[in-house]
Amino acid sequence: MRLKAFLTPVIAVIIFLLLWELLVWAMGWPNYKMASPSDLLPAYTRYWELFLVMGWQTLWRTVAGLLLAIVVGVVIGMIMGFSRTMRDALYPLLVGFNAIPKATVVPIIALLFVGMHDFNTVLIAFMISFFPIAVSISIGLSTLEPEYRDILRSLGASQTTIFWKIALPKTLPEFFGALKVSVTLAFIGTNLMEIVSPHGRGLGALFDSGKTNSDYPLMFAVLIALAFLGIVLYYVVVALEKVFAGWAERAPG
């Protein structure tokens, strides 16, 4: 079963790459119009040192922004989940903020904190990824059955005990579901800043360099590298979910 779970996505990726190669060949597109998978290996070979350095810079900033999003998102979600007044007050603000395209916020952040590229990038990754976490925690706590609270309170349990014994386990499935979404959003935020910032570093800056030099194989190689990092981080979250919330998983019928 584990071998099948590993081979299935690998086979799907191979099929996707073959279809991509076939499409480029059938359409007769040159690599300055549409790069094919066979064009990517020379790009990785030529720029492998840059991919290692830039890939690491993108990865650690994304993870830092995601960790910050988890902390802030959980705190805000708990505040809204335990207090209807705070939920009514904060929800419109959060929805309004999330509705603003982050691509329009990136230049503002870059100008506000000129020269602080690492901080800017982590901040955008955080801003674009904390919303799903806050909402999932809020929904999980606000829908907690009141009977559980009443029973534990009648037994003398404190609010802290109720949170650790009932509320926290109940919100874990929603939390990890939101975290899977936030992983991809964090990468989007990181790369937006890396591309827009005049002093950008990371894979986004490498993509922008390829665009400036009309190096399409490099640009597509960067896109595949970003997809690879996103998949790796996604499956890290999946592994953590199995450890902490595996009890909530239901086998398909």
Key structural traits:
10 helices, mainly alpha, 253 residues, globular, 0% strand, single chain
Strand content: under 5%
Task: Provide mean pLDDT, rounded.
Answer: 85
Characterize the main sheet: none
Radius of gyration: 22 Å
Low-confidence stretches: none
Number of strands: 0
Shape designation: globular
SS element count, helices: 10
Summarize the helix and strand pattern as letters: HHHHHHHHHH
What structural class is derived from the secondary structure elements?
A: mainly alpha
Distance linking N and C termini: 16 Å
Kindly describe this structure.
The chain has 253 residues and is an all-alpha fold. The chain is 83% helix and 0% strand. It has ten helices and no strands.
Summarize the structure.
By secondary structure, the chain is an all-alpha fold. Helices cover 83% and strands 0% of the residues. Helix 4 packs across helix 6.
Which SSEs are present, and which pair or pack?
Layout: H1 2-27, H2 37-46, H3 48-82, H4 84-99, H5 102-112, H6 117-142, H7 146-154, H8 159-196, H9 203-212, H10 216-245
Helix pairs in contact: 2-10, 3-4, 3-6, 3-8, 3-9, 4-6, 5-6, 5-8, 6-8, 7-8, 8-9, 8-10, 9-10
